Amino acid sequence: MRGDRPAAILSWILHPEKTTIMESLIIIANLGRVRPVKFRPAGEDPREKAHIVEMPDRNAEMKTPQISDLVTDQAGRTSQNGPGQENHLKLEVDRQSLERVAAKIAEVVAAEGHPAWRLVAPVTILGALQDALPPAAKKCMGHAEAGDLTGMPLPDLEKRFLK
Question: Which of 77, 116, 127, 162 has the lowest tally of Cβ within 10 angstroms?
Answer without folding.
Answer: 77
